[in-house]
Amino acid sequence: MKTTLTSLAPELIEEICAQVRAAIQGYIGEHSMVFRYARVLRIRFGSNSGTSNKEGWKQIKMPGMSDSFLVPILSAFQLVRSAEWIVESPDPCPQIIDALSTLPALTTLILHFNGSPFHDISLIKLDHLQRLSVSNTKDARFTEDLFTQISQYMETKATLTHVSIETAAPGLRFPFPAQPRQPAPASIEAPNAQPDSVIDADTAPPPTQQTPSSSIQFLRIHGCGFRFKSRPHLSTLTTLEIYHNQIPTNASIWTILQNANVKLKRIVVDSVPLPLLTYLKSYAGLEKLAISIPAASRNHHNHQWEWDHMNGHVDRSDFYEKVIGRHHDTLESLSLYKFSPVGDWDARMDADVETLLRCSRLSTLSIDFDVSDLSKVSIRLSNLLSTALQFDDLRLLAINWVTTQNKDISLERWGLERNIVEYHIPRQAAFKISTGLNLFEPRVKGDGKRRWQQVTIKAGGDIAMGLGWVL
User: Fold this and answer.
1) Most confident of 27-41, 238-252, 400-414
2) Cβ pair 278, 257 in contact under 8 A
3) What pTM, to 2 d.p., does this model score?
4) pLDDT at 436 over 90
5) In a 10 Å sphere around its CB, with 0-12 CB exposed, 13-18 middle and 19+ buried, how is residue 58 labelled?
6) Residue ranges of the domains in the chain?
7) Confidence class of residue 421 from pLDDT cuts 50, 70 and 90?
8) How far apart, in whole angstroms, are the C-alpha atoms of residue 321 and residue 309?
9) Where is this region: Disordered (predicted)?
């Protein structure tokens, strides 16, 4: 019979836990140098570590059986700048946040929840955060409490510059903080507004002249809408990642940004509604535009249907001429996917491709490539690679194979990608190619010619890498 801590008498459990704590503290004392110079800390402790539990939490609560084991360890990491806590336990030890608040160098906190904790987590104790990420929350009440704390943090602490929120709790709105407190109406939401509606930017009160209390530069919102109590302070914002298909009213923020004359440098969206199109036409200087593939539409095969459904019948030529053309001098990263050119990728005959070639600083390009007509794939792919080689600064070309036919193209992948490895690269410096499952790097082959060669893809990065944060 297997003996575990859960099958022992409570008195014996307490004794074992006390011995473990003593051993941990002794180890810290003997090996203080191990902890002293650490800069990044990752915490993961709980009954669900390394497992998938779709039925919820089954941990038995007993004295001493919690992640409180970690508390005496955390205080030893005095130079840690970044902490990532994968919250596994349904009853996370509140003293963990207390211990993290004592670390003077801590400026980044990443929280990822693999369940719904029974009690709240207090973030306001962490005085010097610059970057905060909260992801995978599922319980509405718990998530709303976190939203309130984050909003208060943004409003009262000037240090916070990067905020990422991702929730699976349905129907919630993030209460975007107002500017420093001024006499103003408690709320300017319409009395009969829909649950996810936001204020009309034209009717919002004019901006105040006070110095803003926060300096948000990076904002990522997934799975929820906005709620504004007054005109939000967005003048310092440079990066915005927000999805419209989940919450259509999120598109209102582009009108607010345009009226406030905020000129974003980096934008990540899942579609291009008309307010965003209008905003992008209003200024120049965009460095990154990523139109990602929403999970809900990945199984659709009708390319034109997706275009119309996602983008409100946005005119493609208008998008290339007045958006890409407007920012061509500064664009460094483009993820087009459903907005990709649909022709033969011949710049002499395709105005969209010709417009892309004006983006002389482009280093990353992600596109859809239609393989519905296999008889034309070889020449079209050759044209694509020839076109991509005209970008002097390009470092990565990401290709997403798509088809207008209702079929699985995975069986045709080898034949498609053979066209890549057989292509002769005419110059020494060339970019890498990603096709999702495979990665190709330029190499010199045995015949002395340079071609793309398939290489092993390294394991996926952590949460911080997904956010683009360097810890």
Assistant:
1) 238-252
2) no
3) 0.81
4) no
5) exposed
6) 38-47+66-180+212-237, 285-471
7) very high
8) 21
9) 179-214
Distance CA 89, CA 67 (A): 8
Would you state the pLDDT for residue 301?
45
CB 32 within 8 A of CB 72: no
Tokens 């240090």 correspond to what residue? 159
Q: Taking the C-alpha atoms of 461, 467, 469 and 470 in order, what is their torsion angle to the nearest 10 degrees? A: 10
d(CA 272, CA 413): 30
Give the gyration radius of the chain's Cα atoms: 26
- Our CA angle for 367, 368, 369, nearest 5°, is 115
Residue 110 is inside which H or E element, if any? strand 108-113
Structure tokens at 457: 């893809």
Closest to 452 (Cα-Cα) out of 391, 393, 388: 388
pLDDT number for residue 211: 47
- State which amino acid sits at residue 333: S
191-200 per-position pLDDT tens digit: 444 444 444 4
Residues contacting residue 89 through CB under 8 Å, at least 6 positions apart? 45, 46, 47, 59, 66, 67, 115, 117
Q: At what angle do helices 413-421 and 374-388 cross, to 10 degrees?
A: 40
Nearest Cα neighbor of 24 from 35, 12, 11 is 35
What is the rounded distance in angstroms from the CA atom of residue 119 to the CA atom of residue 141?
10
Neighbours of 302 (CB within 10 A): 13
Give percent of the chain with pLDDT exceeding 70.
77
Instruction: Give the H or E element holding residue 166.
Output: strand 162-167
The set of residues, in sequence order, having a beta carbon less than 8 Å from that of 88 and lying 6+ positions away, is: 44, 45, 46, 47, 48, 49, 67, 114, 115
Give pLDDT tens digits for 247-259: 888 999 999 999 9
Handedness of CA 341, 342, 344, 350 (dihedral sign): negative
